[in-house]
Input
Amino acid sequence: MPELPEAETMARELAAKTLGWKIAEVLVNFAPIVASDWQSFTDLLTGREIELVKRIGKWIHFVLTQDHHLLIHLKMTGQFHFDAWPSSEWPSHCHAAFRLTHQSQEQTLFYKDTRKFGRLRAFGPGQLEIFLNHLNLGPDALLASAKDYHERLVNTKGKLKAVLLDQTVLAGFGNIYADESLFAAKLSPLREAKTLTLEEVKNLHGQAQRILKKAIDCRGSTVSSYQAPEGAGSYQDHHKAYGKAGQPCPHCGQVLVKTVVAGRSTVFCPKCQK
DNA sequence: CCGGTCACCTGAGTGC
DNA sequence: TGCACTCAGGTGACCG
Output
């Protein structure tokens, strides 16, 4: 599900609701959703206060007191849901519950994930760095400069679309925003990334920045079930290529073509995108 | 080493 | 209606 704009939206909305709140209690309803054993997971989190909620690539990062951390990858269908603390019945597809307290107030944050691909990880002091090094994420797709893009893209083997999806090259692109950015930059997803000129990379960088920022303004794309804590996003109304195979290209009218690159469905205009 | 394929899951949509 | 089949925003393991 979430790519950079959806993860950014979730982090912002979670921050607004949970900053300064304490994790009073943790329940895990489906053990495999936690990367470690659930006992050490709950032990690491219980009693900590939430200092910051941010995004690292597509990961959601809760910074907790005493150098403790909660890192969540939402994969295809992960999302957050506020509801009542589960007595016996859990809300549908919710696999972990965090009872949060702030002075006399109380609320419960649920991790919800229909397809159960997502993973939650807790870290104690010094452990987060090791994990992030292991992930080896490239520069953030939104924060990186055109020079960063150029250095990363031109020094990588493979088709442009596959390279954009590789989180160790640039962190944050997924299938939607890769297709949308390539369409806007008039670059073929099938091009070998290393053949891009500096001008082409600068243009791709500019288009990607514009699209990712606009998507964040729209609170992400809701294609099927994606919801941020404050509800669905609306950037799907601005998609020009993703999900539009068979429809006319908005630039030239030629039919948009669907193919498969890096195992992912890819839509592009064979006339505009060179 | 590399690209391609599958596995992990569930639900929605489609066609018979 | 119902069933079989395909596809989905991601990534990591495995294979030739």
Summary: Residues 32, 75-77, 93, 113-117, 157-158, 162, 224-225, 262-263 of chain A lie near DNA strand B (CB under 10 Å from a C1'). The first strand of chain A starts at residue 22 and ends at 28. The helical segments of chain A are 4-18, 38-45, 127-135, 146-154, 160-165, 175-184, 198-217.
